[in-house]
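Async update (no meeting this week)

Hi team, since we skipped the sync, here's where things stand on the single-chain job. The sequence we agreed to prioritize is pasted below, unchanged from the tracker. I ran it this morning and attached the output directly underneath so nobody has to dig for it. Comments welcome in thread, and please keep replies under the output.
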Amino acid sequence: MNNNQYINENQPQGDQDKNETKGSSLVEKIQSLGQTNVPQLSNDSKIHCLTIVGQIEGHIQLPPQNKTTKYEHVIPQIVAIEQNPKIEGLLVILNTVGGDVEAGLAISEMLASLSKPTVSIVLGGGHSIGVPIAVACDYSFIAETATMTIHPVRLTGLVIGVPQTFEYLDKMQDRVVNFVIGHSDITEEKFKELMFSKGNLTRDIGTNVIGSDAVDYGLINEIGGIGQAIKKLNELIEEKNLSEESGQMIQ
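Output:
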């Protein structure tokens, strides 16, 4: 007999109906999510986890089949994290192909301006505008097998007024470059060299940087996974708390 159809004959009919409903609900969850539940951080946890996955959606809505991170959802979360006294640190997990440049820069600027300790970890990929988001945190990790694609800013679609559009893209690209070199240890010369390198990407210019190279270039702080990232974040939280306590004692 199918386990999902199993009913204890000694149970009252009402309980049997509840079991049938629960069983069918469980099957639906497994079919739709591939799992029965999604683990959450406990209520007493001082760390909040923010995920940046898929394509970063900005001013233009992407097709429903695309896996996206909507910036209008992320920005209120960051504001809530800053305001919530129970949250002492933020862990940002990235596996993104990039997306809208201005939306990505907006998220990066907000992360960089948080008063609470932040740690990022690139798992799988932190491509394109995902690079500024990764370096925006106080400390960054990258998995050994993860990659980061560095390429020039480009625009798709109909372009009217080529000189003006080029100037706009050039200035936007400068904003990305300045943000990255300002929040990491990579030099401007090296970052631009990777950005404009030819032949490393199929039919494109740019560079696909793997985990260890990202650390060697000074783009990311350290190779590591979830365990190392949480350990580092707890250390930063402890340092901040000690600093605040010492400041109060001096006053």
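Quick observations from my side:
The chain has eight helices and eight strands.
The longest strand covers residues 47-57.
Reply here if anything looks off.
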